[in-house]
Design a protein that fits this description.
Shape: flat
Strand order of the largest sheet: 9-8-11-10-12-13-14
């Protein structure tokens, strides 16, 4: 637990300054002015009193041991100050000072020294290079920011202190954006987002956890903790800096399709985190979670005095996968009894532009009682007859009597302000545009789905790990990292994947002999650990009908390979059974993400996979539900289900393949890239065949 940071018995400010404008002065002033009730100890050997408080030369001279110390001194003095904190027994330290890992190689070494000291004394550290921390309920503002945010139920962590100062200023002007805890992570040398998530999951004043992060150093740990915390509270994350990271050079189809963006999407989804695409979305959705009860379903009713905004809300709800609630006939009849003839009693309920607060109140009450309604969206446009304040009061009073979430859209600026103030007093979020409110409802629905998602049940197949280890040991023994197709077949076979009959031929005569045994027609493929994409060099020939075709194809394939890749090691050609081509070609692959590990890919296969980019991802290991969902997430999922008289593809065979690959790449973390392309999938009940597989191992 991190209570020493948020509910300390006393606070020491190491580097408190007598000069306004200095960080040490600002931090001390904020601690005092925030209303903190514990003892406050300025630490400065060059002063006797600051801000009316007795000043001490060192924490070692304090009359008690504070739970918390905030260090605001030059970086070169930080290690000594932290060591004194340890000797005094202080267990929670915020290091605001900069000049560490973010600054230089020397700074990184200083940061390592700081963490060594902290670990020696059992100190938890937030920072360095951070803005500080705030708890509005203690209350405590131990930052150098200008002001303390309003009290609320949002806890927010950020790697960017400058971003937090802007958000803090924004919150001061907001009517319904309040915080419980507000933490700047800085360099995350010790306390990380996972530590804060675990702590805030137990904080009674926190209803929703927000994070702005630029990197996750330990992906598997993040996923484990986020899954645990998201069962209790919504976790909304804005992750920046993924596009550049995702452009690394890779050799496989899967690697070129993946990148950091896909890895974070998959990891967040699997761990129950809601990923936000921008700051506006992050805080817009957070206001709904912080101030209203959770949705129990996805059926939304709209009450509006204008048709256009109601239609915009409807469009956005449907695009987000929400439903317009189908009002019961009894509800519609009661609405029709008092609504004007020109009004609409069906959802969206249009109470017309001349509606005053009493008409709104009556409509809202009836709709809220309808068992088919899970949430209400109240749109008010400022027309001549509209009494904004009383209408807002009607919405607010209803929100206190129902367990269904209500979101307001009091549109406009000058006239809407009074209504916004009233709604805020009832903790009803107001949105300037109907689309924002609709997306907030969708985020609430997404959270419920994520929270209630069952834990994955990992399948363990009976496989031959020793056979795979033998192949990989041989690859490494030859100084390679690329696994040739003939070797990859051994790996696939060991993990129970169905393969066409095939054999490696070192000469044209041997190729003819093998083809005669397999039976025509056959396929010839160049066999080389150095040629990754065979079709690029003309290294594949299909539909060979006789010995002459095989002999000619062998010579031509080898010639092309040696011409286009002169230094390639040529083992000969793989002679392969020509399987029926009446199935659907799909891709199953994997690339190793630096943060989260093995990222498994599924999508349509063949030569167009990179052009279409119709793929989806999961971090391995994953269970059957994830594998099932992957099939449904690609845009071409209807092709797999069967269209225009075509029978559905064998779903169980695809799920089985995905689960076996998940186990393979988990069992052998040295695999960094892998493609099965194509996996030929036949109609339901007829299975799938791995036609081509390649692997790349990490360098030793």
């Amino acid at each position: 637990m991190l209570e020493g940071f948020f509910k300390p018995n006393a606070v020491a400010i190491v580097g408190a300054s007598t000069k306004p404008g200095k960080l040490g002065y600002s931090v001390l002033a904020n601690v005092i002015e925030s209303g903190y009730k514990g003892n406050i100890y300025p630490i400065n050997p060059g002063a006797t009193q600051i801000y009316g408080y007795k000043c001490y030369p060192s924490v070692l001279d304090l009359p008690e041991t504070p739970d918390l110390a905030v260090i605001v001194i030059p970086y070169n003095a930080v290690p000594a100050a932290l060591r004194e904190c340890g000797e005094k027994g202080i267990k929670s330290v915020v290091i605001i000072s900069a000049g560490f890992r973010e600054a230089s190689v020397e700074g990184a070494e200083r940061e390592r020294e700081v963490i060594e000291i902290a670990r020696k004394y059992g100190i938890r550290v937030i920072g360095p290079n951070c803005l500080g921390i705030i708890d509005t309920y203690t209350p405590l503002n131990a930052t150098f920011a200008a002001g303390t945010p309003p009290q609320g139920n949002i806890s927010f962590m950020s790697q960017s202190g400058a971003l937090q100062t802007a958000i803090l200023d924004w919150s001061l002007a907001s009517r319904d954006l309040g915080f419980s805890r507000f933490v700047s992570l800085g360099n995350k040398a010790d306390v990380s987002e996972t530590d804060l998530m675990l702590d805030w999951a137990e904080d009674p004043q926190t209803r929703v956890i927000l994070a702005y992060i630029e990197g996750v150093p330990n992906g598997p740990e993040f996923m484990r903790v986020a899954r645990q915390v998201s069962r209790k509270k919504p976790v909304l994350v804005l992750k920046s800096g993924v596009t550049e990271a995702g452009s690394r050079a890779v050799s496989s189809h899967t690697g070129s399709l993946a990148g950091a963006e896909a890895a974070y999407d998959a990891a967040f989804y699997q761990s129950g985190v809601l990923r936000m695409r921008n700051l506006e979305e992050l805080f817009s959705n957070a206001r709904a979670f912080a101030n209203q009860p959770l949705l129990k379903g996805n059926r939304i009713a709209i009450i509006t005095n204008a048709g256009g905004p109601g239609i915009l809300a409807t469009d956005t709800l449907e695009r987000c996968g929400m439903q317009l609630a189908r009002l019961q006939r009894e509800t519609i009849q009661k609405l029709e009894e008092f609504l004007p003839d020109a009004a609409s009693a069906a959802n969206p309920v249009d109470v017309l532009g001349d509606a005053r607060h009493d008409r709104y109140a009556q409509a809202l009450e009836l709709v809220a009682l309808d068992p088919n309604v899970d949430g209400l969206l109240c749109i008010v446009t400022p027309q001549a007859m509209t009494d904004i304040v009383e209408t807002a009061n009607a919405v607010g009073k209803l929100s206190q009597r129902t367990d269904k979430p209500i979101l307001g859209v009091f549109m406009g600026e000058e006239r809407a302000k009074a209504g916004e103030d009233v709604l805020a007093s009832y903790n009803v979020p107001n949105y300037k545009f109907p689309e924002q409110a609709a997306r907030a409802f969708a985020a609430m629905r997404d959270y419920i789905v994520a929270r209630d998602r069952p834990e994955p049940e990992y399948v363990q197949f009976d496989v031959d790990k020793a056979a795979v280890r033998k192949v990989f040991d041989q690859v490494y023994a030859e100084g390679r990292v690329s696994v040739g197709e003939a070797e990859a077949r051994e790996v696939a076979k060991a993990y129970g994947l169905r393969l066409p009959q095939s054999e490696l031929a070192a000469s044209a005569d041997e190729a003819v002999r093998i083809a005669n045994q397999i039976g025509y027609p056959v396929v010839l493929k160049i066999a080389s650990p150095d040629i990754l994409h065979k079709t690029d060099v003309g290294g594949v020939k299909v539909g060979l009908q006789n010995a002459a075709d095989v002999r000619d194809a062998f010579d031509l394939i080898v010639y092309r390979a040696t011409r286009y890749v002169p230094d390639a090691r040529i083992w000969g050609c793989l002679v392969q059974q020509m399987v029926p081509m009446n199935g659907i070609e799909v891709l199953v692959g994997m690339s190793k993400d630096p943060q989260f590990g093995p990222l498994v890919t599924f999508g349509l296969g063949g030569i167009l996979v990179e052009a279409l980019k119709d793929v989806t991802f999961r971090v391995a290991p994953f269970g059957r539900q994830d594998a099932e969902e992957m099939l449904d997430e690609i845009r071409a999922h209807s092709l797999l289900a069967g269209v225009r008289g075509r029978p559905p593809a064998d779903r169980e065979a695809m799920v089985d393949t995905l689960l076996r690959i998940s186990q393979l790449v988990t069992d052998f973390p040295e695999i960094v890239e892998m493609d099965i392309n194509p996996l030929m999938v036949y109609e339901a009940g007829q299975g799938a065949i791995t036609l081509d597989m390649r692997l790349v191992l990490k360098s030793k």
